[in-house]
Amino acid sequence: MDVDPDNLPWLSHLSPREKEERRRLYWSLYSNYSYITAYSSDYRYVNLQRGKVKIYSQVYDPYAVFDDTGKSGGLRKKLEADMFVIIAEIRRLYSGPPSAITDMLRWGNPDSASLKQLDSLYELIPVELRHLFANMTFVTPEDEDRITSQNSNVGGALYMINFNFHSCISVCFRPILFLTSLPSCQPMHLSSDQQSTVVNAIKQVYEAAWRITSLLIFYEKMEYGGGKNRVPENEHDFYNIHQNTLSYLEAYISLWFIVCRMDAQWFTVVSLKEFNSVALRNRLRRVLEIQEWIGSEGRMEPTHNAMVVMLDEVEEVVRVGKHVNRQSEGDDLDFITLGINSLTLGVNPPKKPSAMANPWCYLGFLGLEMGLDRNVKWMGKNEEAWRLFWKLNA
C-alpha cells in the first residue's frame, strides 16, 4: 500500500479512478496511524515509506468523482500526517531518560537526531500554509484578515498544520527546559555552551507555547465568537478547535513550568520577551475556559484536571509573587494519578475507577508532579523512569 500504484506494474490494469481510490485508502490509513503514534505509547511500529505515494487528487468521469475539501486537500492531509510522524519520532527519542544530564544537553546540539527531525519540519511546510504573526502573544486584526484569506484561498482548514508546527518545536526542546528546575543545573554549574543550549530551549518552548495559545484564541473567536460572521458559512469548519487538543496541553505544560518550576536564576540569564506572570496567568485562564467549552469528560478528563491543577499553582505564584521550588514528599504522599477514567478532583471521597488507561498527549509531564503539594501525577508509560531521573540528578 505504501508504493504508488503507478509504480507497481501488476496494477497497470486499474483505471484512474481505481488508482485514486487506492491512494486515498493509503492516505487515510497513514493519517490515522501517524496520529496514533503521536499521542500513544502503545502501538505497533510500521515502517511506512513516506513520499512513495502521490498525494490524492480529483478524478473526472466525466464529472468530479470525489468530494474534496479545497484545492490542496491532498497536500494538507499529507502534511498533517507527516507532522504527526515527526512528533512521534521525537517522542520515541525521548521515550526514556538519558543516562546523564550531559547526554540530555547534547539533545540540543544541531546534529542531534531530534533537531534533525525539526529541520525536516521547516523543509516540509510551505510558508504559504503557515500562519505568520509578528507578536507571539496575540493575533492582530491585520493578522486575522491575512489568516482568513489564507484559509479561503487554500479552501480548507490549516489549524492542524499550524498548531502542530509549534508543537513540534515545543516537544523537541521541552526536556532540556525541564533541566532548569534542578539545583544541579543552575547556570553557575554549566559551561557557557551548555548555558546557551538551555537558553535556546527556554526561548523556543516559551515562544511556541504563546503562539499555540494565541492561535487557539483566534480560532475560538472565529468558530464561536464575533469572528464567525466574517467568513462564509461553508468555511466555518475551517476554524474547528476540537481537532487538536493535544497542542493546547503541550502549551499549557510549558507555560506552567516556566512560571512555577523554572529556577529563578534562569530568569536573570535569559531575557523572555513579554514575560509577565499576571498576563501569563490570564492567558492560561482563557485557555482553560476554551478547553472546558470543548469538553472535560472521557478522554479529555485527565487533560482538564491537569490544567485545573496547573492553573492553581500559577495563581499561587501570582498571589505570592514568587514560586517555591518544592519537591514531592516521596512514597508517603497520597498521590492522585491522572489517566483516562481517573480520579475526579474535587469529589470527596474520590471515586475509584476499575481501570485506567494512559491519557492522550504528545510528551506528557516527563515525571514531574503537579499541584501545590506535588501530589498529582500524570499516568504514562515512561513517567516513573523520568521521575527517578529528576530525583537522581537534583
Characterization of the model:
It comes from Rhizoclosmatium globosum. This is Transcription factor domain-containing protein. The protein has 394 residues and is mostly helical. It has two domains: 1-78, no CATH class; 98-326 and 333-393, no CATH class. It is built from twelve helices and two strands; from the N terminus they run αααααααααααββα. The chain has helices at 16-39, 73-93, 101-106, 113-124, 141-154, 159-178, 192-224, 245-260, 265-269, 277-294, 301-320, 383-392; strands spanning 336-338, 376-378. Strands 1-2 form a two-stranded parallel ribbon. Helix 4 runs antiparallel to helix 6 and helix 7 (192-224) crosses helix 8. The longest helix has 33 residues, at 192-224. The radius of gyration is 22 Å and the shape is globular. The termini are far apart. The mean pLDDT is 86.
Enumerate the spans where pLDDT stays under 50 for 5 or more consecutive residues: none
Quick one: overall form?
globular
Radius of gyration: 22 Å
First-residue to last-residue Cα separation: 49 Å
On the 0-100 scale, what is the average pLDDT?
86
Strand order of the largest sheet: 1-2
The main pleated sheet reads as: 2 strands, parallel
Q: What percent strand?
A: under 5%
N-to-C order of helices and strands: HHHHHHHHHHHEEH
State the total count of DSSP E strands.
2
| Helix share bin | 40-55%
